[in-house]
Amino acid sequence: MIEPTIVVVVLLGLIGAGAPIFLALGASGLLGLWMARGSIAFFFAPTSFFGQLNSFELIALPLFILMGNVLGATPVGRNLFHAASLWLQWLRGGLAIATVGASAIFGAVSGVSVAGVAAVGSIAVPQMLERGYSRKLAAGSVASSGALAMLIPPSVPFIIYGAVSGVSVGALFIGGILPGFALALALSVYIYLRVLRNPDQAPAMDGPKPAMAEKIRSLGNIWHAMLLVIIVLGAIYTGIATPSEAAAFGAAGAIFIAAVIFRCLDWKTALDIFKSSIKVSGAIMLIIGSAKIFGDYLNLVRVPETVSAALTATDLPAWAILTLIMIALVLLGMLVDAVSLIVVTTPILLPLVTTLGYDPLWFGIVLVMNLEIAVVTPPVGLNLYALKGVCPQLEVEEIIRSVVPFVIVQFVMLMIFILFPEISLWLPGLL
């Protein structure tokens, strides 16, 4: 086992030295293949890299990223929060709960958690602070609910997991609906109970009660984006289109909404959006391809089988082993970004999970639920820094402290879906 140890040390050393994650994965994997098979590794590694990327389903990745970036440049996020706040204004803590609802719906529009935090947080946090909400409640509700975009389809992490594991992306999208909205409900219930116990953290309704006509008008500014999401996901769920085909329609529809309906897409904005989408998509593709080199080396020296045999030999119950895995993933998520964590850990953990008798579809769902916790935990919690970027009046340390109770709620929900796998698999089985 000396060679795998050397490879892991090289991987961690490169990451610690600040090397790009794709370079660390590719170089350490290539080193391992060379030690195991000699010079043939220099032919095997490129084959692994391009073979992983030669997937029709991966076409959905850049298209959904483009769709989210285009809609993120429109007032959709602001309009979602405005509509939710009008409908929930009567409720103490309604603005914070509206933030959760707006983030959940915006997650179905963008599929990227950072985009949700930026779009909703830039509007929600100032309004909550202006109306007397506690700073911790305002920051925590935005940072934690922004992570819902990772679970509610169309989800970029689901596309990546599907490409690495071979599980149907459409089935993953269906499986993410119930956990996503269950988590949104749990966060909303927590906020309500928190302000019920501590009324000083959120004031009662101030100002006149909004008229029903005003509430209905607020929906008129979001119906087109919602209709686009329903059509895109409906095409996937009914089998009319593959995720890649639906993503192409979604990207074209998002451009139409931005350019024709909102009239906020000029040539400069469009060019910036395309540049950003290409940059993000290219970075993710590099990581996926490089991780395949690393994963093929691990499979070559039978690391997944060794890890699986060692854990199953402990005679621990399956739920205990899974709990240990999830705790390890939470800790790793504090140090490694979500994309890298999926592509590195899936080849190692998926054989173990299937050996324990669990469904690969279910594991993909709980893995992404775990990553939702990772994006709001320091030091790599991207949502924390995204919120700081759009709300400079908040301190990073303040944001970190604010998300702690929300992370506990997320972890409790994660354990529920681990202990009762049938909840995650009910909707995919039904459809």
From TrEMBL:
Residues 8-423 form the TRAP C4-dicarboxylate transport system permease DctM subunit domain. GO terms for cellular component: plasma membrane. It is found in: Cell inner membrane. The chain crosses the membrane at residues 6-35, 56-76, 96-125, 137-164, 170-193, 222-240, 246-265, 277-298, 318-349, 361-387, 399-420. PANTHER family: C4-DICARBOXYLATE TRAP TRANSPORTER LARGE PERMEASE PROTEIN DCTM, SIALIC ACID TRAP TRANSPORTER PERMEASE PROTEIN SIAT-RELATED. The complex comprises the extracytoplasmic solute receptor protein and the two transmembrane proteins. This is TRAP transporter large permease protein. It comes from Salipiger mucosus DSM 16094.
